[in-house]
Write a structure and sequence with these properties.
Elements: H1 19-31, H2 36-48, H3 50-61, H4 71-77, E1 83-86, E2 89-92, E3 95-97, H5 103-110, H6 117-127, E4 128-129, H7 133-142, H8 145-149, E5 172-179, E6 182-189, E7 195-200, H9 205-219, E8 224-227, H10 235-243, E9 247-250, H11 260-274, H12 282-290, H13 301-306, H14 328-346, E10 361-367, E11 370-381, E12 384-388, E13 394-398, E14 402-404, E15 425-426, E16 434-436, E17 442-444, E18 486-488, E19 495-497, E20 523-524, E21 530-531
Helix pairs in contact: 6-7
Length: about 550
């Protein structure tokens, strides 16, 4: 009687493959859903690629030692146990290995939806593999013109502190804003948070200077004034500032965050104006704000500005109206503590961006929804640059609104540098006009509307708000409400109506009319009530 040796290592005579393993390989090979044409293309490219064909030979016949391989094959040696080759397809686990000539087309297909870098990489890593795939896809996404056109702004940079004010009107922020059709001028003191709001006759530089003279004659002249460019960055306003011995500091266009002091004053003024029932009530409410203590300081803005409280309609103790001794050192320390706390919170999610050099090809925010290609021509300060576009227009933008790009090669830029010593003036979009002045600074040219002499009968009172009566009826049967596509011929001033979208088989009824032949039957609701149709149909 013979007993089988359970520990025998004799090979079985059947040399067929294990069925489970064959099924697994079959599943891997079938995971790549190719059309017949693409499958033949993959085989043809794969066979002609020597490097990848060597990998396939190593997978079928066995791998040599690591030191005998070239650098390309060493990249696959690390995960050789995951490689499979069947039916001319090379896989790493369930990911198809792409030869060199097909990598660009596969990358474009993966990025066809124009997702971000992380999404595109996650999609590619799920399906494909080739050495340095992450680097190739990152370069593709960063150089994609469609993605650059709709990309977001850069991440905010760490906060740069302004100098701490030491006395009232040491530094003030000024801005012009509109509310209910009226123009206002806001001045906000950095030392005391004292707010001054006055109504303007217009937005021209002459009107602003006229109102500033009245304000400064009443409250004093500031040492430093932070403001926007248009229309304050003009020749006449600079002369006015020089006469007042006031230093001007302008913010970058399209970046109001750089003039946060003025924006804070505008926000407070608008909140007060919203709650005014009459147009003449805002001045007293501004006074009430200036007499209210600031939470972080415990003193009212008028106390810090005048050295005493201001008397309002409310009863007040006589001693409060006398000049009080304010310890300036404690106030400055409180300012410093408050600014340090704000800076710490702001810098938690900030990132320092790489500086740009003159001559770099960049993409910048031309307006709120559009990116434009340009070239760096001058560095104004640490985070502000002058950019020249294709039409030889110059724009000033903050670093957060500028991205270095590899595209824009089809745009021609001359090699000449900006001559800062001539009086050349270049037109810009959105009334942003760069003036290349004699002192080497970039200013915005004065863009004042032409003032014409008008009689007293012709002047318009802009302070009065237009009143619309509630009983006023609006006619909805106008042609503006008809949904007909109107095209404008670019070669002529005439217009024509496109009737191709109108179905002539349907009897279109005019608004406000109905067909007398059609009878509308009354409907019955769920509760059993009979709902009668209205007498008229359409627009009233």
């Amino acid at each position: 009687m013979l007993v089988a040796d359970c520990l025998s290592r004799a090979q079985l005579p059947d040399e067929s493959d294990i069925p489970e393993l064959a099924n697994v390989i079959h599943i891997i090979s079938q995971a790549a859903c190719f059309s017949q044409e693409n499958y033949e293309c993959y085989l043809r490219v794969f066979e002609n690629d020597e490097n990848y064909w060597k990998i396939a030979e190593f997978v079928k016949n066995g791998w040599p030692s690591f030191h005998k391989l070239n650098q390309f094959c060493q990249n696959f040696y690390k995960f050789k146990s995951e490689l499979h080759f069947e039916n001319g397809l090379l896989f790493r686990a369930c990911r198809l290995v792409i030869p060199s000539k097909l990598q660009k087309s596969i990358s474009n297909q993966v990025h066809e939806s124009h997702l971000g870098v992380e999404k595109t990489l996650a999609r590619a890593r799920k399906l494909y593999y080739w050495p340095d795939m992450s680097v190739h896809i990152k370069e593709l996404v960063h150089s994609c013109e469609v993605c650059e056109k709709f990309r977001r702004n850069n991440q905010k940079e760490p906060l740069i502190d302004d100098e701490t004010p030491e006395y009232p009107f040491h530094m003030a922020g000024m801005d012009i804003f509109d509310y209910r059709g009226n123009n206002f001028l806001s001045i906000f003191d950095a030392y005391s948070n004292f707010l001054i709001v006055s109504r303007l006759k217009g937005k021209s530089v002459a009107n602003v200077i006229e109102e500033l003279k009245k304000t400064f004659d009443n409250y004093g002249y500031p040492s430093k004034l932070k403001c926007d460019n248009n229309p304050l960055n003009s020749f006449s306003f600079r002369n006015f500032a020089n006469e007042c011995n006031t230093l001007l500091q302008f913010s970058s266009p399209r970046y109001p965050q750089s003039n946060g002091l003025a924006e804070k004053g505008v926000a407070i003024a608008k909140n007060i104006l919203k709650r005014c029932s009459k147009a003449t009530d805002y001045q007293y409410r501004i006074l009430e704000y200036n007499a209210t203590p600031v939470a972080s300081l415990g003193l009212a803005p008028c106390e810090l500005f005048f050295g005493r409280m201001c008397k309002t309609k409310m009863p007040i103790k006589k001693s409060e109206l006398l000049r009080n001794h304010i310890e300036e050192e404690k106030i400055i320390k409180r300012f410093g503590h408050k600014k340090a706390k704000q800076k710490a919170y702001y810098n938690m999610h900030s990132k320092t961006l790489r500086p740009l050099n003159i001559g770099d090809k960049v993409q910048f925010r031309k307006n709120a929804n559009e990116w434009e290609y340009g070239i760096i021509k001058q560095k104004v300060n640490e985070r502000s640059y002058i950019i020249k576009d294709y039409f030889n227009n110059f724009f000033r933008r903050n670093r957060r609104l500028i991205n270095k790009t590899q595209n824009g090669n089809n745009i021609y830029y001359d090699n000449e540098t900006v001559n800062m010593y001539d009086n050349e003036t270049v037109n810009m979009y959105d009334n942003e006009i760069v003036n290349l002045s004699e002192n080497g600074t970039v200013n915005l040219r004065e863009n004042e509307p032409e003032e014409t002499e008008k009689s007293n009968e012709e002047t318009v009172n802009i302070s009065e708000e237009p009143v619309v009566e509630e009983t006023e009826n609006f006619d909805l049967n106008q042609t503006d409400n008809v949904n007909i596509e109107e095209n404008i011929d670019p070669l002529s001033n005439s217009t024509f109506v496109n009737l191709s979208n109108i179905d002539t088989s349907v009897d279109y009824e005019t608004p406000g009319s109905f067909s007398s032949e059609e009878e509308v039957e009354p409907t019955v609701s769920r509760s059993g009530r009979t709902l009668r149709p209205p007498k008229r149909y359409g627009w009233d």
